[in-house]
Amino acid sequence: MATLLISDLHLHPGAPAITEDFLRWLDERASDADALYILGDFFEAWIGDDLLDLGDADPTGTAPLARRVISALKALADAGTRLYLMHGNRDFLLGERFAREAGATLLPDPSLVTLGDERVLLMHGDSLCTRDEAYMAFRSQSRDPEWQAQILAMPIPERLELARQLREHSGEANTNKAEDIMDVTPEDVVQALHAHGVTTLIHGHTHRPDVHDLEVDGQAARRFVLGDWQPGVGWEIEAAPGQDLTLRRITLSE
What we know:
Elements: E1 3-6, H1 16-28, E2 35-38, H2 62-78, E3 82-86, H3 96-102, E4 104-107, E5 111-115, E6 118-122, H4 133-142, H5 145-152, H6 156-175, H7 186-196, E7 200-203, E8 210-216, E9 219-225, E10 233-239, E11 246-251
């Protein structure tokens, strides 16, 4: 059976078409998969798993959306598909409660897994954008357990406002950055593959879907980049025993 990988859905109440497309994709496509990996930025923003307790009282609408997604993921897991979640730069506070209720396993970034017939390195991809020094400083802070504990201790309304401010700041900052700064640093890609002793990397984050050929320690290597989902369009990678990895643009709805 095949394994599927996706990334960067950025689910949020303001883009209901993407949520509907994803739920349909789970039912029609992922239900046949042996495993599904979601490599970060599953949600546009996530302020902590206790957001789920708000239900319909959540002023952002994220909690009821997340409940629908959890229910669909749990049904998929109960039917036999193994589910794996990796944090992204938008949903780094996604926690064990969410994973448990969805029937999924949280994966560290990076992770080594076997896909088909080979060992592959999985990452969200933001840790490879080392030329963006301002972002790398924020990433270091936001992955610190003490910083996260302080944020999660804040009242939910304060966290919602902080998330809004961070998204606004990120959007403003990115408009002033050169394109290459927001892409991965080639030398760090090679170093990551070398450090883990593999020749295939899969990541998302950059929203630049492609397959890049490179060389690591004298061997041919590849970097697969998953694209972000938009209304009606998504990206997936399929891995199956005896077959090469396939990056595919998928039409989800008209």
